[in-house]
Amino acid sequence: MLPLTTRAPAKVNLTLRVLGRRADGYHELDSLVAFAGVGDELSLTPGEPAGVQVSGPFAAGLSSGDDNLVLKAERVLREEIAGLRSGRFHLVKRLPVASGIGGGSADAAAALRLLARLNDLPPSHPALLAAAGRIGADVPVCLEARARIMRGIGERLGPPLRLPRLFALLVNPGMAVETAPVFRTLGLQAGQEYAGGVAAFDADGSSPATPASLIVALAASGNDLQAPARAGAPVIGEVLSALSATPGCRLARMSGSGATCFALFDDCRASAEAGKLLAKQQPGWWVKPTVLR
Ligand SMILES: C[C@@](CO)(OP(=O)(O)O)[C@H](O)COP(=O)(O)OP(=O)(O)OC[C@H]1O[C@@H](n2ccc(N)nc2=O)[C@H](O)[C@@H]1O
Ligand SMILES: Nc1ncnc2c1ncn2[C@@H]1O[C@H](COP(=O)(O)OP(=O)(O)O)[C@@H](O)[C@H]1O
């Protein structure tokens, strides 16, 4: 049987506000999430022996064992849907691992979408969202991979937003950053509220209509995890400085818990030129011009 395929686009937290810490230790967030043109690719060949094979530029160092989030997604969905049909996955890993752009979450969400197709489950089947929430905090927003406000620990999703296209440059300095220690560095006790900065804009209202007005709204907000991540990985400060210094950069910020940062530009020529410049200055960094939407 022919493989089923899907893309697993990178998630970018355009803003990320921490509102407090829950009794279970997880943090309440308010984050405007968008998705990039760059991503992993996942395919599923029905009927073949179970497992995942990994290839691509970031395959090294990523396990193809049970801890791969693709296989975790399959396991969790199997617990929700008795008699689930599956097969062998092939993951082309193009996104840096543990990098704040949710590559693993995107892969898990992609696996859920492929399994839904194979088992004739509609995309709105409640088991898919239930499974997504059990796999990881970022997986629900990656299921549909459309821009929206994400709240709670990631399970409360606003309606899809029609954001103007943003011309962006994504840069990762090649340092994996674990998420949990970054949250811990905020130093919040269970039940404590956090007076972070302002949210980007009201999730239920309309978003700014032009890229320029959206960038102005974004600039008034921020990422509350940026300072704690920088404290543990000072190279993030170097990435932000390098991005801010590129001609035409309107905003430079970290995504998620880092270390990937993004810069926003007025057009695709400016983002491409900035990409060429940075790739020359820092040949060891992952540098990707892309469109966020
Ligand atoms: C920070 C964010 C922002 O989108 O992105 P990344 O940096 O991972 O891309 C996410 O909230 C990450 O989501 P995800 O990576 O799925 O997190 P999980 O695997 O569920 O949790 C990893 C660890 O992060 C902490 N965690 C995660 C989410 C959250 N809202 N509060 C937390 O305190 C917990 O310590 C948890 O044990
Ligand atoms: N398919 C996968 N892709 C990326 N990371 C994975 C995958 N499966 C398991 N992981 C593990 O999940 C953790 C988070 O990875 P990732 O989603 O890339 O991070 P982030 O959300 O910070 O971008 C990493 O420690 C990685 O080893």
UniProtKB/TrEMBL annotation:
The gene is ispE. The active site is at K11, D138. The lineage of its organism: Bacteria, Pseudomonadati, Pseudomonadota, Alphaproteobacteria, Hyphomicrobiales. It catalyses: 4-CDP-2-C-methyl-D-erythritol + ATP = 4-CDP-2-C-methyl-D-erythritol 2-phosphate + ADP + H(+). PANTHER family: 4-DIPHOSPHOCYTIDYL-2-C-METHYL-D-ERYTHRITOL KINASE, CHLOROPLASTIC. It comes from the Bacteria. This is 4-diphosphocytidyl-2-C-methyl-D-erythritol kinase. Its EC number is 2.7.1.148. Residues 217-268 form the GHMP kinase C-terminal domain.
